[in-house]
Design goal:
With about 400 residues, the protein is an alpha/beta fold. About 40% of the residues lie in helices and about 15% in strands. The protein has 14 helices and 15 strands. Helix 3 links the parallel strand 6 (about 95) and strand 7 (about 115-120). The radius of gyration is 21 Å and the shape is globular. This is Sulfoquinovosyltransferase. Keywords: Transferase. One of its GO terms (molecular function) is glycosyltransferase activity.
């Protein structure tokens, strides 16, 4: 078979009601499938005020707000309406993008109907409890994730470093790569606008340290702010530019009273904001890829990042940026100080970053997932069955 024979039922915990890197990738992929002649049906929670229009046909799944994070919703069951829609659609593959209750039901439905199931991994859920004083739950969550992913025919990760971690955690026999692409019309050095920087109170010779992303604690906001405090104590000249919104904005603003907060940006405005930085600081360890890191690289910026999944596959230490042990405040500050005080080193790392980013095109990376779909369907047709327990 080829892509035109695909009938994909995609289950997502957040397809378009809050914008994030994961659902942007899913929407791009659905649009790619549709352009190639595949049939796609998406099942996800919906709201009256979504962040953006969805790609493809979206069917609403019953959901409830996440306690303490009401902007997010948990799809808690597969309703009769969803089941009827599935039967009418007649998928030949089920794709689950979140290990939530609906995702579990979708995998069970696929197994019951003899259909292959593929799961995409978008974040390191097992690391979230540590940011809320519940680190003791991490082994429990990892065990639950393992049970979920082992019931799928294959899983795909957005980076080789994340794929290797999933193998080490024994999540699946079949771990592939579905990486991320970059929109080069939006992210390139030509977006740099010095007049815009000046309007924010940033001098032309101010080295700008940037943060891009949703403002939530699991993005490492505490490490970021502690590092900036350390940098200030070293009397290193710099400015901090924060691009994004989220529930921790006020906390972050209180910790960094001298930072410039632009709020949420998208499209050309986001490209201008990223290109207006001189380096990206990404201390998060929860990313499985790091879309923002790739966007910064395409704009010619060096990145100082935690040595963690995602970043390890993008940042070449000492070439396109620096990889630092997670939480190492002093080492983070030293790396940022080096780029703040040495424009030549900054420019060299930025040029290397641009070269690296040129390897990532959306059509190429999306076709890799299409190829995985077709391979898994063919394996099922030849009698291969999902194995629930990889060898330790």
């Amino acid at each position: 078979m080829d892509v035109t024979g695909l009938r994909v039922a995609l289950f997502s915990g957040n397809y378009n009601y809050v914008r994030d890197g994961a659902n942007q990738a899913l929407n791009r992929f659905v649009a790619y499938l549709l352009r190639q002649g595949a049939a796609v049906r998406v099942y996800s929670p919906t709201t009256d005020s979504p962040a953006f229009e969805p790609a493809g046909d979206l069917v609403s799944a019953p959901s409830v707000p996440v306690p303490g994070r009401r902007e997010y919703r948990i799809p808690y069951r597969m309703s009769g309406a969803v089941r009827r829609d599935l039967r009418a659609f007649r998928p030949n593959l089920v794709h689950v993008s979140s290990p939530d209750p609906l995702g579990h039901r979708a995998v069970a439905w696929a197994r019951r109907h003899g259909l292959p199931a593929v799961a995409s991994v978008h974040t390191r859920f097992e690391t979230y409890p540590r940011y809320y004083g519940l680190a003791f739950l991490e082994p429990v969550i990892e065990s639950l994730l393992r049970r979920f992913y082992r019931r799928c025919d294959a899983i795909v990760a957005p980076s080789e470093s994340m794929a290797q971690l999933l193998r080490e955690q024994r999540m699946s026999y079949d771990v592939g790569i579905w990486t991320r692409g970059i929109d080069r019309d939006i992210f390139h050095p030509g977006r740099r606008d010095m007049a815009w920087r000046r309007s924010l109170g940033i001098a032309d010779d101010d080295p700008v340290i940037g943060f891009i992303g949703r403002l939530v604690m699991e993005k490492g906001l505490d490490v970021f702010s502690d590092t900036i405090d350390h940098l200030a104590a070293k009397n290193v000249r710099h400015k901090v530019l924060i691009v994004g919104e989220g529930p921790a904005r006020q906390w972050f603003a209180n910790r960094l009273p001298n930072a410039v907060f632009t709020g949420f940006q998208k499209g050309a405005d986001l490209g201008r904001a990223v290109a207006g930085m001189d380096m990206l600081f990404n201390p998060s360890v929860t990313e499985t890829f790091g879309n923002v890191t790739l966007e910064a690289m395409a704009c010619g910026l060096p990145t100082v990042a935690a040595r963690a999944t995602g970043s390890e596959s993008l940042v070449a230490d000492g070439v396109t940026g620096r990889l630092i042990r997670p939480g190492a405040i002093t080492a983070f500050a030293d790396a940022l100080a080096a780029y703040c005080t040495d424009p030549a080193a900054r420019a060299a790392a930025g040029a290397a970053s641009m070269g690296q980013a040129e390897r990532y095109g959306w059509d190429q990376v999306n076709q890799a997932l299409v190829d995985t779909y077709i391979r898994i369907i063919r394996q099922r047709e030849h009698g291969a069955l999902v194995r629930s327990s990889p060898v330790p």
